[in-house]
UniProtKB/TrEMBL annotation:
The chain crosses the membrane at residues 21-43, 55-72, 105-125, 131-158. Keywords: Membrane, Transmembrane, Transmembrane helix. The keyword Membrane applies. Residues 10-160 form the DUF4395 domain. It holds the Pfam family DUF4395. The keyword Nuclease does not apply. It comes from Microbacterium aurantiacum. This is DUF4395 domain-containing protein.
Length: 172
């Protein structure tokens, strides 16, 4: 079944598995940020090169790349491929499927939050990367453990407002 078609939908367990892996990566990133340059008073005095070499910056950059991959090509994103090829065949079919657009939007929200943390680090803002990684961790953790996708909820609010997810009539 095509994963892009809302009529067919996606297995809702896939995004939760991806959120679980992402939350583990973000937890490591928060730890690295708390113990490294990102949360240090020395950050403003550090050069841009030193800020970019901080392990927390590098890991958050990799996580941002994974979010970008999930937005641009969800079918080839690593956690989706892992779920479809290794995990899903061992599970019973899902009771119901869900629209793939909200989880994809949530990946975009994760990308924006991660990029914000990276930009704050480059600008020399102490605790900026730490706060962004922690916020992304909380969102990913809520999705993985409780099935509460904050980005998906944002999508639904924006959809009700008519800002996303519906074709708009063209003006003459």
């Amino acid at each position: 079944m095509p994963e892009r078609s809302p009529a067919h939908g996606i297995d809702p367990r896939g995004p939760r598995v991806a959120a679980g892996i992402t939350s583990l990566l973000l937890l490591v990133d928060v730890f690295l940020a708390l113990t490294g340059l990102a949360s240090s008073a020395a950050l403003p005095a550090a050069s841009v090169s030193e800020r970019m070499q901080d392990p927390a910056f590098l890991l958050l950059g990799a996580i941002a790349f994974l979010f970008l991959w999930g937005v641009l090509s969800p079918r080839t994103a690593p956690w989706g491929v892992l779920f479809r090829t290794v995990i899903a065949p061992r599970l019973s079919p899902p009771a119901e499927r869900e629209d793939p657009r909200p989880p994809r939007f949530a990946q975009g929200v994760g990308l924006v939050v991660s990029l914000t943390g990276l930009l704050l680090q480059l600008a020399g803002v102490p605790w900026g990367l730490t706060a962004a990684a922690a916020a992304a961790f909380v969102a990913a953790f809520l999705n993985a453990v409780f099935g509460l996708c904050l980005g998906c909820q944002m999508y639904l609010v924006l959809q009700r407002a008519g800002l996303v997810g519906r074709a708009r009539p063209r003006l003459p």
